[in-house]
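Fold this sequence, please.
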Amino acid sequence: MRKSDPAITATKAIPAVQEKPIQIDRLVTGSVLITDPWGGELMRLLVVVLDAGWIALPTSACIGGNQWEFRSQVGASVSFAGGLWMEGDIIGLWQLETVEGYEGPPLKPWEAAVPLQWLSLQSGRRFESVKVTPLTEPGLFIQCQLPEFISGPGLFIQNNQVVGLTFGKEADGGFLLAENLDVFETYESTVADFYARTFAGGREEQFAMGLAMAEDRPVMERLKVLAGAFRLEPKLAIQDTPSYLNEAEIIRHLRFLVSQARNKDLAGQLFELFSVPVLRDINDLDLALDIVQAAVLGRGYEHAIQLTADLTDFFQEPAGHQAPSLLSLRLTLYQQFLHSRLEDGEIENGWQVFKEAKGVFPDDPVIHLIGVELLLADGNWQEAERLLYMMEYPRDLAEKVKRLGARISELKGQEGKIVIRFHPGSRLIPVTVLLNNTLEHNFFVDTGASFVTIPYDTATELGIAIDENSPRHHVSTAGGMIVARETTISSIELGGWVVEDVKALVIDIPAHPAAGLLGLNFLSRFRMDLDTNQGVLLLSPK
């Protein structure tokens, strides 16, 4: 006898064997509606009532539902009082709360030596001499393999008595009763008990709760419920888990919600929610890659690269090799991070990232060339040249290698010269010089000016006194001829080169009153090579 719960009791009435042949139009049929705690319909099954209000239900169809209701063809609805079900049973027998008016043919044990019939509940068609193959050891029901012509819900019949059932796609095969129900005098379970033992408090219940959340709820709230479910232990075996709750389906939904969150500029919150422990619990590489990309948007390259490092050792191939997609993403992030440092002029920080990247990917040619670019940005063409030619490069990088080599040659030619860069084609060549070793000031290179000029405010800042005794010069400007006073600047430093005791005129240039001019009395100390197309002026000290 199966172990039962003594706290849940009910007496069952077993009617006498019916003598008339079982006909489909004489059966009490209807549908069982299974709903979850959030009102979602999980299953609707075509069923037949047996004995005194008993209905056989596949366990897999009931999982996740806490409300079960039988609806007869005439429209009446009845809940279930309790049933015969224990953990491991593929099929359970459940009795309706109201028995009167819901009687059906008796359910009797199957006999292997007696001819077997099958009656379709959908078409009413009857098949004689059906051969089945038992697949499981006897329990409450024996699962059996069906011939190909049997499909959909139906009844197995022997001697005008029901001995088993089929459920179609809801439960594979057929199910033949193996035990005489006369020995059972108590229920073994209730719907609430079934839900608590199979579903409540487990990973699958929280999955269901997350999926049931309305689409107008905040996306991060829905993600938090679903992601948090992976931290709970599952209550169902894989083969018993409804398809909509299997981990692959939940992860697919998670990735969809993650993409929504990224589109809503919530990448930073994604990085916080999907911590390394959470991603390890979920154990899906594609989702981990999505979160790394979100980390780039929400927290920057440094956090994203660290996340790939934390996850790389966890996501391994069977042979122990690191997951190639995660490793490839880490390499790409390093390359992008280094390019961003170059574009932002963060050369010192770029070097730190380069050394770190080189330690992880010592043979990557792209990272190697970025190192050359960092050296050139820092003006160190000698070390850049050494680094450039210490590695062989793939064909797709040949053009870049050629450009860097040309840049190195250019810098070689500029060795010992002052290099002034300006916008190609511009008539104005701006520079910043150091006056009297104390004051940085903006100037324009002007080969048409005979003298250096400084504004009146600049003269005051340098402590230069201008009075009636200062030498006078007549200067032609766009506004006409004016008188400018002469003074002497103790030193002018440009590009590391210092010219001392430079005569200068104190004048506010009409178009640029705050700037000075570097005239020929300063420029004549150098040989000049001007390329307006490239925007480069080279000054070679004489």
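The chain has 16 helices and 23 strands. The chain has a mean pLDDT of 89.
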